[in-house]
Amino acid sequence: MATPRLSVEASLYPLEAHYLPAIEGFIEALAHPALTVTVGVMSTQIEGPRAELWAQLETALSTLEAGPRAALVLKILTFSASEPHPAAARGEAP
């Protein structure tokens, strides 16, 4: 059986005027050879094997312990967002 892959979209909103260092530190802590990290303007997409992804999210969360206060919004897909939708999702025969 294949290793389960997840896709997570993370949006971090530090609640202070100087917010870029917190966001940059969070994103840098997501780096892992088994993960694909794509940085966007309003969110960061992380994709990879579930165990590695959760471990790196935990590492990234630890960068926020010393402050600033922040809101972190996660959208979690239980599949790889880079995979195409199945034909049935378009009403086509499999």
Calculate the mean pLDDT score and round it: 90
Radius of gyration: 15 Å
Give me the strand/helix succession. EHEEHE
Q: What ranges have pLDDT less than 50 throughout 5 or more consecutive residues? A: none
Shape: elongated
Strand content: 25-35%
Q: How far is the N terminus from the C terminus?
A: 22 Å
User: How are the strands of the biggest sheet laid out side by side?
Assistant: 2-3-1-4
- Per DSSP, the total helix count is 2
Q: Tally the beta strands.
A: 4
Backbone structural class:
alpha+beta
- Main pleated sheet: 4 strands, antiparallel
Helix percentage: 10-25%
Description:
The model has no long low-confidence stretch (mean pLDDT 90). The protein is elongated, with a radius of gyration of 15 Å. β2 (36-39) and β3 (44-49) form a beta hairpin. It has a domain at 1-14 and 44-67. The longest helix has 13 residues, at 50-62. 23% of the residues lie in helices and 30% in strands. It has helices at 20-28, 50-62; strands at residues 5-14, 36-39, 44-49, 70-77. With 94 residues, the protein is α+β, with helices and mostly antiparallel strands. It is built from two helices and four strands.
